[in-house]
Specification:
six-stranded parallel β-sheet; Rossmann fold; alpha/beta
Length: 598
């Protein structure tokens, strides 16, 4: 573009159609990758994509997968993920991914095609009320009705997605807006005060928190995904604060990696399938400081019995989350990064308190080893899934490569959280709030696109893998060296476990009667298939998978009836964990009300 043309563009005088304006704004926002699937209503945008080379498009095979891939791209990079889908079924197929991103606070902008403005409301071909359908599925959404509103609307969408508590934003684009001429207006001052980051935390609230920290005998940092969303600096500040205070740290599923899992101050994940020490410390602490976590029901268990004797502090960027589920004593509103810095500044040179009695108690809980298992190492022995993940972790670390792990949803997800260690943030990609089966495979696509030289592994179950198996085509097209590590027990494992616990082992429709041959399936999609059927084959399969420079499906045949422990039955308290299959669920406080919470 000439200098004159550039000047004209800033004043809206350059002759551009709406699709070209859209791409200019995406480029202005730093977008490098778009995940999408074409259709009639977005063909002008795809034509504009064809004419440029600054923004890369990744063609998925299903719109749900486009959103999951963009989620993982966003989560692994800290950038806003971008999705492009067509009208009607294209938009409705994306809804699951949008809700997933909303629940897990992932910044996305989803661009949807729409029928021309004059046909809206006329039940036109491939028309859907996209803004109406997605209003509860997004942080905010827009319908662009005039060409002059296009550029600023898209800019605002990015601001909303990344500001405050991050989340997905949808922009619905009628075809006449993208076909016709539109001005590339200059950026305007933001009108979106309610979406901006909050200021620093209240000084008095910080002082109250630090005073409680100085006098606590049994303190605990309870950390969540908000720390990771806040950026790498927040994770570093958390580590510094933990070092200075000597406090133990636990994490939600979404927060894994914010504090190094191998660190002796880390107690592991808390909640339904959390560690014994994390859950018992949560129940027994006298000071609980929640940082970027929202007290999800899978963490709290029985709300009226959650950490019953603790002084509670809740730090969150979203004021509506504070006190929403658990009553707290101190509110710390604002970005958790700013809160951690304020706590560090206020703590200053205060010597770490003597917490030896508390750490001795934690050590006694640790000695229970709730994640322990016994693997028969006879070569012909059946593989236990925990052993498979531990060996995968150990052998992946031996490669020295930066490793990203996505998961599907189910038992394998919990085993991965328990047995795969994360020393850095942004390496753990899983569906927490919505629990979306089919998330992991497209998420691995997004992570591999973002980090082409990294080792990306989808730890999967055979049932979840089949939910978005078509994305093997995307992996093949872009030659993505994704490793799909299937723990194949032939059941929807978590469903089977709950049926065993709650419904007298009546396994209604949880057994997979007709699974594909995953080795042959891999070959059909130009990948390499491998299978391990016994312990003696496991290490060789993992080694070959990690050494192979292309995509791999490793079908790991594991014990069919293995359950995931420890486990807090829904409706029970943190100190009422089931530690194994021989424990009576009634003894752990399982109630009829709890059964309804599954």
């Amino acid at each position: 573009m000439t200098a004159a043309a550039e000047r004209d563009a800033t004043t809206g005088n350059e002759a551009l159609n709406g699709a070209e304006v859209l791409l200019r704004v995406l480029d202005e926002q730093g977008v490098e990758v778009v995940f999408g699937y074409p259709g009639g209503a977005v063909l002008p945008i795809y034509d504009a994509l064809f004419k440029q080379d600054r923004i890369r498009h990744i063609l998925v095979r299903h719109e749900q997968a486009a959103v999951h891939a963009a989620e993982a791209y966003a989560r692994s990079t800290g950038k806003v993920g971008v999705v492009l889908v067509t009208s009607g079924p294209g938009a409705t197929n994306a809804v699951t991914g949008l809700v997933d991103a909303l629940m897990d606070s992932i910044p996305l902008v989803c661009l949807t095609g729409q029928v021309p403005t004059k046909l809206i409301g006329n039940d036109a071909f491939q028309e859907a009320d996209t803004t109406g359908i997605t209003r509860p599925a997004t942080k905010h959404n827009y319908l662009v009705r005039t060409p002059g509103a296009l550029a600023q609307t898209v800019r605002e969408a990015f601001e909303v997605a990344r500001s405050g508590r991050p989340g997905p934003v949808l922009v619905d684009l009628p075809k006449d807006i993208t076909v016709g001429q539109a001005p590339l207006t200059a950026p305007a001052l933001s009108r979106l005060k309610r979406f901006r980051r909050q200021g620093g935390p209240d000084a008095e609230a910080i002082a109250r928190t630090v005073e409680a920290m100085k006098t606590a005998k049994r303190p605990l940092f309870y950390t969540g995904g908000g720390i990771i969303n806040s950026g790498p600096e927040a994770s570093e500040l958390l580590r510094r604060l933990a070092r200075k205070t000597g406090f133990p740290v636990t994490s939600t599923l979404m927060g894994l990696g914010a504090f190094p899992s191998p660190d002796p101050q880390f107690l592991g994940m808390l909640g339904m399938h959390g560690s014994v020490e994390a859950n018992m410390a949560t129940h027994g602490c006298d000071l609980l400081i929640a940082l970027g976590a929202r007290f999800d029901d899978r963490v709290t268990g029985r709300v009226d019995a959650f950490s019953p004797n603790s002084f509670k502090v809740h730090a969150d960027i979203d004021p509506s989350q504070i006190g929403k589920i658990i009553r707290v004593d101190v509110r710390l509103e604002g970005d958790v990064r700013d809160t951690l810095q304020a706590l560090l500044d206020a703590w200053d040179d205060t010597p770490a308190p003597d917490l030896s009695t508390w750490w001795n108690q934690i050590a006694s809980w640790r000695s229970v080893d709730g994640f322990g298992f016994t693997q028969d190492m006879t070569p012909s022995a059946v593989i236990r899934p925990q052993h498979a993940i531990r060996r995968l972790y150990e052998m992946a670390m031996e490669t020295g490569r930066d490793t990203f792990v996505s998961t599907e949803v189910g038992q394998h997800q919990m085993w991965a959280a328990q047995h795969f260690q994360f020393a850095k943030p942004n390496r753990w990609l899983t569906s927490g709030g919505l629990g979306t089966m089919g998330y992991g495979l497209p998420a691995a696509v997004g992570a591999q696109v973002a980090h082409p030289d990294a080792l990306v592994i989808d730890i999967a179950g055979e049932a979840s893998t089949l939910m978005n198996i078509q994305e093997l085509g995307t992996i093949a097209q872009y030659r993505l060296p994704v490793k799909i590590f299937i723990l194949n027990n032939q059941y929807m494992g978590m469903v089977r476990q709950w049926q065993e616990l709650l419904h007298g082992s009546r396994y209604s429709q949880s057994y997979s009667e007709a699974l594909p041959d995953f080795v042959k399936l891999a070959e059909a999609f130009q990948a390499t298939g491998m299978r391990a059927t016994c312990v003696g084959e496991l290490d060789d399969v993992i080694r070959r998978m990690l050494e192979h420079d292309g995509p791999v499906i490793a079908d790991i045949c594991v014990a069919e009836n293995e359950n995931c422990y420890p486990m807090i039955p829904s409706g029970a308290a943190h100190n009422q964990m089931l530690l194994g299959p021989d424990q009576d669920s009634a003894a752990a406080g399982l109630t009829e009300e709890g059964m309804m919470l599954v």
